[in-house]
Structures
1.
Amino acid sequence: MQLKDVGLTFEDVKKYTEKYMIETYERFPFLAAKAEGMYLYDQDGNAYLDFYGGIAVNSAGSCNKKVVDAVIDQVQDVMHVFNYPYSIPQAVLAKLVCETIGMDKIFFQSSGTESNEAMIKLARKYGTDNFGENKYHIITAKNSFHGRTYGAMSATGQPDNACQLGFKPMLPGFSYAEFNNVDDFAAKVTDDTIAIMLEPIQGEGGVNVATQEFMDGIQQLCKDKGLLLLMDEIQTGWYRTGKAMGYMHYGIKPDIVSMAKAIGGGMPIGAICATEKVASAFTPGSHGTTYGGNPVACAAAIAELKELIDRNLGDNAAEVGAYFMEKLATLPHVKESRGRGLLVAIELDEDRAVDVKHNALDRNLLTTAIGAKIVRMVPPLIATKEDCDKAVEILKASIEAL
Ligand SMILES: Cc1ncc(COP(=O)(O)O)c(C=O)c1O
């Protein structure tokens, strides 16, 4: 839809938005008129180099032609039917996902937070079915982010963040331990604990990478105490960090993994995958969704995943991401650059992340700020070293202009 199609100006759109929408976002000062590959274009045709990718979504590039074609094809056959008839896109996607990451079973959802709800519910059901009614407690990491619905929000270890303030009490059954500290997790295990739930890199928490030692220790702790390991791969999944899933860098295997964002290439879809044993806790009527497994979203996901796999975009993310991080580390006022693949952040030596983000926006580079000091970048995985050079140049000017 373009302004001329509806006879509006950009100012009209802004006015309607401010008057009628419940606004919880700090908007960019332009509208998204077109998106293509590494670029977003505003109402006047200005191009913005996109290093936020709809927050780690548009991995094969915005409006990837194969994804767009798959959507157009599918909307002409079936747009929505609920999960009663068998579905070609669901079956093909289920096989592709399970075989690619070596999992037994999948359940489709529509978003990240919903996928984490499914993951938490499945772990609780498995625990209480097999070990008694109190066996539903889950330990998550401090500073984690798992979503904004009540289960996922309660799993989130950020009690002082706006995402939790005013919504208390959180659901019972969650406790929180220090990320990258196995001893703290071990200390929080009780007879009622069924699972440990983690992101391999805390994305919203500031791009904090789990250490190998931590992941080894957590895997051992789960084995020793008979706990399930739940991995939230919503931001890190589907080659963002170089491998299909972030946990694959560590040689560990979770019992349940949640995914969303990049899997749909821009269409809203999420999922959980689980081992056969754990998945069997979900029985008819115990879980369901109207839109999860929607045929258009599944068709888009098949095309997106094929693009990521066929074009080796995971290898590209690993190589270009390492190059990018090295360059970022040389910028003035950058205390540290960190991340893995193309999930990258710079930590500034002062509380100026929002100012850097704004200065970069003025110079046509799109990034996100996390907290006071961190600027995060999650560009499409098609990003080249030249794109990164451009981003580094703009960030340098943005920091120097502070
Ligand atoms: C690790 C992680 N889990 C869950 C979510 C929630 O996903 P959604 O916004 O699709 O509900 C996010 C979103 O940023 C995330 O990064």
Note: The chain has two domains: 32-60+312-400, 65-310.
2.
Amino acid sequence: MKTFLSTLTLVSLSQLALGANYTLLKDHSGNGFFDDWAFFGNYDNLTNGDVTYVNQSQSTNLAFINSAGHAIVKVDNTSFVPYNEKRNSVRIGSKDYYALGSVWVFDIAHLPYGCSVWPGVWSSAFKWPDQGEIDIIEGINKMTANQMALHTFAGCNAATGTNAINQPSIANCNDTQGSGCTVAEKQSNSYGESFASAGGGVWATQFDESGIFIWFWTRASVPASITTATNSIDISSWGNPSAAFPSSSCNIPQFFGPQQLIVDITLCGDWAGIPSLFGPSCAPSGNQSDPSLCYITDVINNGTSDYATAYFEFNSIRTYGVNSSVLVSFDGKPESSSNSSTGSSSGSGSSSGSGSGSSNSSGSNGSSQGSGAKINLMVTPSGLYAGMAVATFLSWLVL
Ligand SMILES: *[C@@H]1O[C@H](CO)[C@@H](O)[C@H](O)[C@H]1NC(C)=O
Ligand SMILES: *[C@@H]1O[C@H](CO)[C@@H](O)[C@H](O)[C@H]1NC(C)=O
Ligand SMILES: *[C@@H]1O[C@H](CO)[C@@H](O)[C@H](O)[C@H]1NC(C)=O
Ligand SMILES: *[C@@H]1O[C@H](CO)[C@@H](O)[C@H](O)[C@H]1NC(C)=O
Ligand SMILES: *[C@@H]1O[C@H](CO)[C@@H](O)[C@H](O)[C@H]1NC(C)=O
Ligand SMILES: *[C@@H]1O[C@H](CO)[C@@H](O)[C@H](O)[C@H]1NC(C)=O
Ligand SMILES: *[C@@H]1O[C@H](CO)[C@@H](O)[C@H](O)[C@H]1NC(C)=O
Ligand SMILES: *[C@@H]1O[C@H](CO)[C@@H](O)[C@H](O)[C@H]1NC(C)=O
Ligand SMILES: *[C@@H]1O[C@H](CO)[C@@H](O)[C@H](O)[C@H]1NC(C)=O
Ligand SMILES: *[C@@H]1O[C@H](CO)[C@@H](O)[C@H](O)[C@H]1NC(C)=O
Ligand SMILES: *[C@@H]1O[C@H](CO)[C@@H](O)[C@H](O)[C@H]1NC(C)=O
């Protein structure tokens, strides 16, 4: 078990920007849901999962609008995959980046789950981990509860003793230790079959100078301020968040730059595929010390029934801001004045804005918001990466 490395101050959530009304920036819903997202178009080179993330031209059967008008994002469950090959899946990244002062609302009817399945709804700065990552929804295999996390450079901690519903399991957000700072959801119906049978639910993330706050509501509890929101949203009645990362323990403007929203589903890999996590619940009679246990059990061959639940169904993803200037390019420049936005071309099949920039940066921390600093560093492994330490820590959740 981890010990907390820092003495954390007891904080209240008084720093929450209470009573804030936010203006609608982007409405990803209906037939236009996939507008303004880039498809990754590469194999999973981030978390070592056994998938190829299709490009846009190959995505027709894996990313589409269903008859209910909702967006499906799924793992290929119709193809025969020969041994040593990867299964097709999807990773999309928003062409927009969001600066501090934004709120992102994910209304979801179904999350991918099942053996070997590892979905994520998360955000990342262009420069990673220098400017931070926020994991909003993440789970593996037969987990029944969602896990949230931040990943940053050393010096950012998740506060304990806030009035958030869930307290951190690991407080140190230092990504170089693998797990980031994690918060396990204890409210009901946050993942897997129970999430789906409850009719899904809504997550909202407030990305603010005062902190990062994540709310989760199962369908029956989604507040009217969300269901009735049109061109603005009032967060003042949302109550205690599910997870709180106030600036008192993590200087948000220092550790976080503009964030790109990302949705993906990988299979096996650095978390779901660890034999000690996968084997007991998903292949108890298999060879528990074979590192390819997950791959050979689920990914290859027909894979048709294994992946019947490996899909997202999004009712909508809507983003809001204190004003429209929080909608920026990867480099923090207002979109309207930037020429280097990865969002300017559609269907390029490039890396979803996660590292195709060719410009340079002075590399200073905390100056990225609107600074116009350009960036040279490629984004390195997605912080969805969860190393052995967290995997072990979380093994009780998985069984
Ligand atoms: C937010 O908007 C609602 C609806 O327009 C309004 O009733 C409320 O007073 C506003 N709150 C703040 C703090 O501006
Ligand atoms: C951050 O992680 C690195 C690598 O494990 C370690 O060397 C460093 O001491 C950590 N720093 C803090 C403040 O946790
Ligand atoms: C189980 O897998 C390990 C690691 O690949 C291998 O060394 C061992 O021989 C396997 N055991 C059996 C019974 O196949
Ligand atoms: C794949 O599915 C087909 C049709 O159901 C079946 O005939 C075949 O045996 C399956 N192959 C494997 C390797 O599971
Ligand atoms: C494939 O997945 C879809 C959901 O995405 C499901 O409706 C369908 O039944 C699955 N097919 C098989 C053969 O399991
Ligand atoms: C938008 O909001 C940000 C953050 O509060 C503020 O710094 C900026 O001045 C505002 N811009 C405009 C055009 O109002
Ligand atoms: C963007 O590029 C075009 C063509 O190179 C140039 O004319 C325009 O001034 C540039 N705009 C900005 C804001 O840099
Ligand atoms: C999309 O991927 C397919 C399969 O890898 C490839 O043949 C095709 O050239 C790609 N299309 C684009 C536009 O990159
Ligand atoms: C992963 O692939 C993308 C797309 O080809 C590329 O831009 C990125 O640099 C790669 N990342 C790593 C860590 O290799
Ligand atoms: C980035 O720009 C700085 C300042 O111009 C320069 O010193 C540095 O070498 C550049 N880095 C790269 C990788 O090009
Ligand atoms: C960014 O800040 C972190 C934490 O304070 C520090 O370890 C790192 O060296 C800084 N990077 C740059 C480029 O200044």
Note: Confidence is low (pLDDT under 50) at residues 1-19, 337-399.
3.
Amino acid sequence: MTLTNTRDRYGSLSIALHWLMLILLAAVYACIELRGMFPKDSAERALMKDLHFMLGLSVFVLVWLRLLLRVISPTPRIEPNPPAWQRGLATLMHWALYAMMIGLPVAGWLILSASDKPIPFYGFNLPALIAPDPDLGKQIKGWHELIASLGYWLIGLQGRRCAGKSAACRARRRPVPPARARRAGLSPCTAAQGEGPTALRSPQ
Ligand code: HEM
């Protein structure tokens, strides 16, 4: 496996980043949901919130690396090529996810800035983006919460799409049955190694 993507498969860097982002996003959501288990003003509740802020800001840092990878290396094609409407929908969902991974952390940073609260980041305090303005802070918080709720759906739908895509990839790598290989004029060895034409290896 290569470090960056090729036309046929994802590289190890893309795969590692994909899973890291997924784990980070799950942790960001989990921390903010778990805060409700602890009493107001408790140290545990504050810790959950701080973790939410820091992990959310980590998503913001890593998303740029993901975007850079997308620009410098190709996106592997899906075989067989899905219909245009499916590709369009997938692209739309992809960009919505990127917008969420950039927009939510920025909105969170703005909430804390407007509320005149510290913005913790692994032992540092980040500078405020705007001057204190509690009303504006509340307004942005409303948007942050709304987009975060939509994010649950987006991540769920993206998860379904990835599962479908990897099932198709696994099916493509399955050896071609000998009878089909003979009909297509492939040697049984080549077929068994999954080296036959893509059309033969596509899911049925
Ligand atoms: C991808 C990143 C992020 C996601 C998915 C996300 C998601 C969420 C969710 C689900 C909530 C709870 C909404 C509710 O209670 O209904 C929330 C609240 C909040 N988030 Fe984020 N967030 C992210 C990043 C950030 C960042 C980076 C910050 C700050 C630097 C931040 C600051 C806040 C604040 C201040 C609240 C309100 C907390 C409270 O009132 O107890 N978020 N976020």
Note: The chain is about 70% helix and 0% strand.
